[in-house]
Design a protein that fits this description.
Its cofactor is ATP; L-ascorbate; Fe cation. By secondary structure, the chain is an alpha+beta fold. It has two domains: 40 residues; 266 residues, Sandwich (Jelly Rolls). It is built from nine helices and 16 strands. Strands 1, 2, 3, 4, 7, 12, 14 and 16 form an eight-stranded antiparallel β-sheet that branches. The longest helix has 15 residues. It is globular, with a radius of gyration of 20 Å. The two termini are 39 Å apart. About 7% of the residues have low confidence. The structure holds Isovaleryl-coenzyme A, adenosine-5'-triphosphate (ATP), 2-oxoglutaric acid, fe (ii) ion and magnesium ion. Fe (ii) ion binds next to loops.
Length: 334
């Protein structure tokens, strides 16, 4: 156990001592953190996370909450997904992505062709996920009270075609985001059915959020790789990995610097999850020119130009400001 962890435990014991004395112990915790500014950097005191949960997120960069979303809600998301795949509804701005090997072979109809929906913010039925009170309650512990839903996805990981393209390479989500600070951004990812090693659950490197944003590019995979699935160029292959096996409705909240990916889907079912990346609306946009994010920014601008028929006056930042939706509090900056 590191010294930093020992200090955190001291602080959290103060916080936990008694409900009646929360205020007083918070003052004493602040006195401690005055000498150690790094204490409780990643979470906020909103009274939702227990001291143990705060400690776990600070240390690991993720926290798993079991059964946070009801079966009824998930069944509704699934129905809406099926309607979209059957083209019964048209959603403005929605990106329907096909697995690279399926897209490059014969045409397959319906949901069997779809690997991911991205930017569902204009679909009220799916967007219900992003405003579920029990999700926002947790999100506020990371972002604070002003909350934007920045990025929305429904992932339908297909059975692998044998080319291993159903994998998602290890990456940090912050690579895609031109806004900061990273600690006020969080991803909420909910399993829509049982996810396990066999169907390609999330794989995380606990504690990797303590590091910096790393260089990403396309992995050198023989069977090909999906568009924009960049991976961390070099990460420590000896870093401990955790496979997040989850039941329907279980939800993981994770930090945008946490290195994560997902394995092959070796079953014949489509592994479904729904997610939203939230940021504090007090965050600010950054210029990524000359940084490791410049390559992805150019790739996104190129796609946006094709999709919306706009010229390159639309910036990488604009593509995010257009998609972001306020879900709680005030839109102060983003
Ligand atoms: C934190 C978070 C942001 C992390 C992430 O989500 S990482 C992944 C981010 N993913 C994305 O942003 C989705 C990007 N995908 C897209 O924009 C679209 O699906 C496109 C790749 C542009 C394809 O859309 P669209 O043009 O409508 O599809 P088409 O069927 O007409 O195909 C056009 C050409 O693209 C190819 N294609 C389609 N899907 C993929 C794919 N998954 N990977 C690689 N290539 C693909 C397709 O074969 C076709 O190529 P050609 O026949 O022109 O050579
Ligand atoms: N050669 C590789 N280079 C980069 N990332 C990889 C490579 N192989 C696997 N990964 C990534 O590691 C994570 C785990 O994938 P993997 O397919 O090894 O799953 P797994 O659950 O560990 O299964 P298995 O038990 O078969 O190893 C995924 O994010 C995957 O994309
Ligand atoms: O559901 C998955 O496989 C992970 C997706 C993911 O990490 C992402 O799109 O950023
Ligand atoms: Fe991710
Ligand atoms: Mg493996």
């Amino acid at each position: 156990m590191s010294r930093a962890t020992d200090r955190l435990k001291v602080v959290l014991n103060h916080l936990d001592r008694s409900h009646g004395a929360v205020r007083a112990s918070f003052t004493s915790a602040q006195n401690v953190s005055y000498h150690h500014p790094q204490v409780l950097q990643y979470t906020l005191d909103t009274g939702v996370l227990t001291p143990e949960q705060r400690l776990a997120y600070e240390e690991n960069g993720f926290i798993l909450i079991r059964k946070l979303v009801s079966d009824q809600d998930i069944d509704r998301f699934r129905k809406e997904f099926e309607r979209i795949c059957k083209r019964e509804v048209k959603v403005p701005g929605l990106v329907v992505m096909r697995d690279v090997t399926i897209a490059k072979s014969e045409y397959v109809e319906g949901e069997k062709a779809v690997t991911k929906l991205q930017d569902y913010q204009e679909d009220p039925e799916l967007f219900r996920y992003c405003i579920l009170p029990q999700i926002l309650k947790y999100v506020e512990s990371f972002t604070g009270p002003n909350i934007m839903a920045m990025h929305t996805m429904l992932i339908n990981k297909p059975p692998d075609t044998g080319k291993k393209t159903s994998r998602h390479p290890m990456h940090q989500d912050l690579h895609y985001f031109p806004f900061r600070p990273a600690d006020r951004i969080v991803c909420s990812w909910t399993a829509m059915e049982k996810v396990h090693r066999g169907n390609g659950c999330l794989v995380v490197l606990p504690g990797s959020h303590h590091g910096t944003l790393l260089e990403h590019d396309y992995p050198q995979w023989e069977g090909g790789v999906n568009k924009m699935y960049h991976g961390v160029r070099d990460y420590d292959p000896n870093h401990p990995r955790v496979h997040l096996e989850m039941e329907k409705g279980d939800t993981v909240f994770f930090h945008p610097l946490l290195i994560h990916g997902s394995g092959m889907n070796q079953t014949d079912g489509f592994r479904k999850a729904i997610s939203c990346h939230y940021a504090s609306s007090d965050c600010y946009y950054i210029d990524v020119k000359g940084t490791t994010q410049e390559i992805i920014s150019n790739e996104v601008k190129e796609l946006a130009a094709k999709k919306y028929g706009v010229d390159d006056s639309v910036t990488f930042q604009d593509t995010w400001a257009l998609r972001g939706r306020l879900v709680q509090g005030d839109r102060t900056s983003m």
